[in-house]
Amino acid sequence: MKTAVVTGAAGGMGQAICRQLRADGFHVFGLDLNEEGLGEMATELGSDFTPICVDLTDPIAIAHTLNGIRSEYCGLNALVNNAGTQSAQSFAGEITKLTIVELRRCRRHAAQNANRFHRLSSPVA
After folding, report:
1. Cβ distance 48 to 73 under 8 Å?
2. What's residue 62's pLDDT?
3. What is the maximum span of the chain, computed from C-alpha positions, in angstroms?
4. Main-chain phi, psi angles of 28, to 5 degrees
5. How confident is the model at residue 105 (pLDDT cuts 50, 70, 90)?
6. Banded pLDDT at 49 (limits 50, 70, 90)
């Protein structure tokens, strides 16, 4: 069976991605901090979905998670870096009306996400 890792699996877009990958015959490993959302996906998708609650800002946790998946399934066929992609919703409205604090938070969040993608993608490559 093909395997896929989806980060941000408990959010709206992540759930849709997990459903489609499952329909396409993948065993899906859903990574997220939202345990409740992961549990709902596990109930919906059954045994072909493995929920993993992990902090993607922690390189050691990422390495441990990916090593576990590789050893259990002898590899990984797909990686969907979806975590943090919907955070722009928290900055709804005109950008000209954002405060300097909000702009700094947005910049910091974007930098964290860029590092997160690198930390997750590099060990998979």
Report:
1. no
2. 87
3. 50
4. -105, 130
5. confident
6. very high
Rounded CA gap, 15 and 37, in Å? 9
In the chain the domains, ranked by start, together with CATH numbers, are 2-124 (3.40.50.720)
Residue 33 to residue 55: CA distance in whole angstroms: 6
Q: What is the pLDDT of residue 72?
A: 84
- Residue 88: CB atoms within 10 A of its CB come to 11
93 or 4, higher pLDDT: 4
From the list 10, 13, 78, 71, the residue with the least C-alpha distance to 45 is 10
pTM: 0.72
Q: Which residues contact 113 (CB under 8 A, 6 or more apart)?
A: 83, 84, 85, 87
Sheet containing strand 26-32, edge to edge, reads: 49-53, 26-32, 2-7, 78-80
Provide the residue type at 34 as one letter.
N
* Beta bridge partner(s), residue 80: 6
